[in-house]
Amino acid sequence: MSGISRRAVLGIAVTGSVSALFAGCAPGPARGPEGGPDPGPVAPSPTAPRGGYGPLVRDPEGLLDLPEGFRYTVLSREGEQLRSGEGRVPGRFDGMAAFASSDGRLALVRNHENKPDSPTTVPRVEGLVYDPGAKGGCTVLGLDANRSVQSERVALAGTAVNCAGGPTPWGTWLTCEESEGRAGDDGYERDHGFVFEVDPFDMAANREPRPITAMGRFRHEAVAVDPRTGIVYQTEDASGPFGLIYRYLPDRPLRGRGSLLAGGRLEALRVPDVADLSEVTEPGTVLEGVQWVPVPDPLAEGTPTRMQDHAERITRAQKLEGAYWGNGGAYVVSSYARSGEGAAASHHGQVWRYDPAANALVLEIRFGSDAELELPGESPDNIAISPYGGLMVCEDGAGGQHVYGVDRAGEVYPFARNRQEVDDGYGEFAGVTFSPDGSTLFVNVYTPGTTFAITGPWTG
Questions:
Q1: Measured on CA atoms in the order 158, 160, 161, 167, is the torsion positive or negative?
Q2: Which domains are assigned to the chain?
Q3: Region annotation Disordered: residue ranges (predicted)?
Q4: Closest Cα to residue 281, out of 371, 385, 150?
Q5: Alpha-carbon torsion (251, 353, 443, 455), positive or negative
Q6: Nearest partner of 374 among 96, 12, 39, judged by Cα
């Protein structure tokens, strides 16, 4: 390891190079000609103001507090009728991404993390169902230029615990099952724990859904796709033991929709001399010489992938959650680590960045332990890089729930606060994502399931 300078800003320690690393990038994929890869929109050149957008203003509607000058629109609520007439909007809103078509349409693909005991089910639309015994899936909102909802329909049904995922460079969504359920468990008729590809515009392409089995069967959380190589980085939220960071090397990289089904190689990350990423406490630490170890049985026919007899010791982390590609690397999040639950050290969240060019893993941000810092937030989950510089972080912790920003200089600030009363404790934010033109931030509240569109003076 080699150390880099460290500083603490508003209770979060960040690397000295954060202004360069979070300088902003294109926020989302656009559909290229004939569905092929598109270089994406040019990131807006103006930047967000230092230290965020000011104090949050109490919302008289009791939904969402935002800084002065920002406004929200509620696009969708669980329990409402889907505009397609296919049933009601299912709950448990989670990961999400925004896509622009070549003819100017905008689509939001949204996960529903429904478990076997969930009170709602993604409507089982004929032809779009993987397993009639599972309740999860994805819905798609079609928006016009004014961000008004023109359509809302099912894109995938019969999957399990659809948590996060990630967009592809060719303009589709990879939705991840955070499950290891097998046929016969909890009413399932098929095995689960896979990644599925969802087209945001062409529902016919989503018919007869097929899992991308070569990407592994485990408790998938999120993915980030390298647009230069097509390699897919994946996180696993699991315990007993903790989960892993994987990469999938497709046999047909960057070939467009359906190409990931052609097969590939699944590997797990190993950092020499680091068994648990929570051991690293100094932001800016660079873990060099990263190794990728083949997973012997990606389908986990006998043993979960994280417990298999790998040739080399594997590096683990507690609560591996969000992932995002930007600035030439894959960002991955460990939401928290607790020594009392088996972690090597405690923290309230880490954001790592894997740099493929340097083959190194860098600890960009570390939320400290209770004994170290008075934190403005805890338990980062879904993340997105802002086109105006910095990072947007969905909080998934105790108490009040926020979307936090990290500006280009490393200062942390609250951007949004959920004001809705939640009985079951799952009022966290999820699925934060910008529109491809950077004008609108979309974000979900997990429950009561709510999708917001937020606009305002992004450049101060």
A1: negative
A2: 6-455 (2.120.10.30)
A3: 29-60
A4: 371
A5: negative
A6: 12
Q: What angle do CA 127, 262, 309 make, to 5 degrees?
A: 110
Q: In this structure, is the dihedral angle defined by the CA atoms of residues 138, 143, 147 and 150, taken in order, positive or negative? A: negative
Is residue 162 within 8 A of residue 113, CB to CB? The reply is yes
Return d(Cα 69, Cα 57) in angstroms, integer: 9
CA–CA gap between residue 358 and residue 401 (Å, rounded):
36
Q: In the structure encoding, which two tokens stand for residue 170, read together?
A: 């060719």
pTM greater than the 0.90 cutoff: yes
CA distance 241 to 313: 13
Q: Cβ distance 94 to 446 under 8 Å?
A: yes
Q: What is the DSSP string of 57-97?
A: EPPTTSSEEEETT-EEEEEEETTSBPTTSSSBPPS-EEEEE
Q: Where are the alpha helices (DSSP H) in 86-173?
A: none
Residues in Cβ contact with 228 at an 8 Å cutoff, skipping those fewer than 6 apart: none
> Are the beta carbons of 220 and 193 closer than 8 angstroms?
yes
Cβ 109 vs Cβ 172: under 8 Å: no
Contact 222, 166 (CB under 8 A): yes
124-149 burial: b if 16+ Cβ within 10 Å, else e: bbeebbbbebbbbbbbbbbbeeebeb
d(CA 389, CA 409): 9
Position of tokens 């902003």?
24
The C-alpha angle with vertex 174 and arms to 170 and 178, in degrees rounded to 5, equals 165
Nearest one of 187, 384, 182, 174 to 261, comparing CA atoms: 174
Q: Do the beta carbons of residue 51 and residue 411 sit within 8 Å? A: yes
Question: What are the angstrom distances between the C-alpha of 427 and each of 41, 279, 281, 394, 445?
Answer: 32, 30, 29, 11, 6
Alpha helix segments (H runs only) across 288-425: none
Q: pLDDT tens-digit profile of 129-179?
A: 999 999 999 999 999 988 999 999 999 999 999 999 999 999 999 999 999
> pLDDT digits over 297-336, tens only?
999 999 999 999 876 789 999 999 999 999 999 999 999 9
Reported as a pLDDT band with limits 50, 70 and 90, residue 367 is confident
Cβ–Cβ under 8 Å, residues 53 and 460: yes
Length of the chain: 460
> Considering the chain, what is the average pLDDT of its residues?
88
Nearest-angstrom CA–CA distance, 349 and 282: 13
Q: Quick one: 353 exposed, middle or buried, by C-beta within 10 A (0-12, 13-18, 19+)?
A: buried
Report d(CA 335, CA 244) in Å as an integer: 14
Distances from the Cα of 365 to the Cαs of 21, 202, 248, 391, in angstroms? 11, 38, 25, 11
